[in-house]
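Here is an idea for our session: we take a single protein and study its fold together. To get us started, please write out a protein record for me. Start from the sequence, derive the backbone structure tokens from it, and show both lines together. Go ahead whenever you are ready, and we will take it from there:
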Amino acid sequence: MKDEIEQYLAIPGKKISLKNYDTHYRGNLQKEEGKERLVDMKLKLSVSQETLYAENTRSVLIIFQAMDAAGKDSAIQHVMSGLNPQGCQVYSFKTPNSEEYDHDFLWRHYRALPEKGRVGIHNRSHYENVLVCKVHPEYVLNEHIAGYQDVKKIDNEFWKKRYESIRNFEQHLNNNGTVIIKIFLHVSKEEQKQRFLDRINNPSKNWKFSSGDIEERKLWKQYMTAYEEAITATSTEGSPWYIIPADQKWYARLAISHILAETFKKLNLKFPVLAKEEAEKLDQIKTQLLNEE
């Protein structure tokens, strides 16, 4: 599956067209086989997380972005269920509050970064500021940025600077030990429709549906363009984007787990080795314990 994962990598510097990415792809796997593989992958991820925690020199930040009903929540639930909660933290970002609007757009995301040794998961992220805000530029006015009191002033140059801010932010994190993995769950418009209908028809899922989701669905083309431009502008060697086919939830989860496993493997994580003096002290303590009556 490693070779398949490579085809989902948004190559830095290459213009992205989402039409070239199959949302329904599942390789040569069947659903049950995929689920079995996911169980094995979660065990491997658990060991990698423990080593990351013990080494305590780096952190991993996983960013999830997608259209509504693409499966972000369930992907986080299934893929991350094997991780130790003590070394993992999840943030789901909603509309900024008044305090957050009083700071730059990256402020609240910086505050939510994982500590060294931990895995951080951002369900939606700072990319909302070049996705939702690009489709709805009037939202930018809430940030009270000098020189941008009129939506007409929010031009291409504004977005170029915002992409630059994101690249610089992520490069700064890379330089200081944070590994960033960016996941775009690429769901088709047809599959989103079916999932919306499922939420409406199933009383236990009614709470997941919002009438606002339908209004955003009408802007599908604008969102696809915003995603293409954001991914093209911000997929870098240090912080790559992966475009994951999401019409088959079980396959998306398996693909994500493989990406995480490959990322951990490249980190070459090691459990700390005690200094000679500390090792000798442990031997002395061991002898004491064994000699106890």
In short: Residues 31-55 form the longest helix (25 residues). The two ends are 55 Å apart (CA to CA).
